[in-house]
Structures are given as structure tokens and as C-alpha cells.
């Protein structure tokens, strides 16, 4: 699969770091994207994609040419070229590339590299789904999925879940789950009972916090804000600045949304804190999970 699952993948983060470095350097040099691209062998659209971290295979000669144009010193130029080399590494999910578009591939890379995730969901999040729940969700979203593709999607889901149980630096997951997710029937009652007991088991992990946001809490900030994920990353082990946090909003059935402006990310962090303040405690949440699981038991 390329990258071992107990290692932290290095592809999306170097692309973002390189893009941010080049964007800041261009700005400091007083050049627009159009002017900078005209002075190098790049199109404006191509340079913009590099700066936004969307190009996996950035040519080293392009990086060197941009650094020379921006009057970057030899040491920082070498660091930029190293980031370009790291960005070319094959992502762990490459074998599943036929299942999703580039936008969700970006999310998978970010999820794998994250130190912490805070997510608000109105259904069971993928990292905590049982195989049966995931199969029912996938089947509902992708009508008449071929058996081989279904197996691939389930395998991908399982590999993502290993982020929580890997021995080296497991992901810290803070889940705020709306109470409706416990009662929104996926599959059947037996499946739901098993799913809720699965949640209870994962909630016992030291790196997982699970809290239910009850109906009686009403609308946080008086709005229907919908699901979101805040991803935060580890400091650069080589002493560079840490990659900024990012917010992901799944866009199905339209496009996914990534929010990177610091003030907007801070707003979502404040929103998650407001939701958490009105949520059940972790202990109350686990009691509720067991209670609702028993209710499902009586239905079959």
C-alpha cells in the first residue's frame, strides 16, 4: 500500500507547506501570480494550483526557478525542494483512487496526517462505523454498487479507522454527535444496536471523546450549522511552523468545502466549544448509548 499505517503519511502536508511558502515569498517580492508565471515556465492557473497545495508532482526545476525569482536564499531553496520531493510520495489510499475524486482524496490525506480532529455529526462518523452500518450507508448513497467496489469501500473505511488504534501517535478524536444519529435508522434495529455498542467501545479509548448533543439543547447560536470537521496538525519536527488548522465540510451531493482562513477556522472552533458546553458528559453519553441499544434489542 505504499505507506505503512503506523506511519504518518507525508504528501498533502508538504504540498500545503510548499504552497504557503511560495505564496508568501511571491507576496514579499511584490509579484502577482500573473507576473510571476510570466517570468517562469508556468501558467497562472498552474502557479495558483501549486500555491494552494493541489499539485502532487511539483517539478523541482519549477521550485528552484520560483525561489530564484523571489530572491530566496540557498538554505530555504533546499528546504522548498525537499518539500517538493516529499509531496511526490505515494499516499496510502492510492489503491482506492477509483472510488473518489481529488477533493476527497485531499481530505483523506489531511485526516491521516492530523494530530486532532473535532467533528460534529448528525450520523455516525466514518471513523466509528461498523462494517454493517458502513455497508448500509454506502448502499444507500451508491445505488447498485458492484460487490467488488463495495468491498473496496469497506476496506478503505477500515484502514481509516486504524488511525485511532495505531501504536505510533494515534489520532485524537473529539466527536460531538447529535442525538438524532442514535435514532436515525440505518439498516435495521439489530444493526443499530450493534453500532451503538461499537460506539460505546470506542468511547472507552483514551484518545477518543464522544459526547451526544441532545435535542433539548436546541439550536446552537440559533442556526442550523450542519456537520463539520476541524483538523489540527503536529508541529513540524524539523522546527518549521506547524501547518494551520483547516475546516472540512462534506458537500454531498455537491462539492466539498475546505475553510482555511484563520478567523473562519477560529469561528468553527468557538462553535464546537458552544456545542460541547450543551452536550451530555462522556459518562452520560455512554449511558444513553447503552439505553438506546437496549431499545433496539426489543424491536427485533
UniProtKB/TrEMBL annotation:
Q: Which SMART domains match?
A: HTH_XRE
HTH cro/C1-type domain: which residues?
22-78
Question: One Pfam family of this protein, by short name?
Answer: DUF5753
InterPro entries tied to this protein = Cro/C1-type_HTH (IPR001387), DUF5753 (IPR043917), Lambda_DNA-bd_dom_sf (IPR010982)
**Gene Ontology molecular-function annotations:** DNA binding
Protein name as it appears in the record: HTH cro/C1-type domain-containing protein
* Origin species: Nocardia aurantia
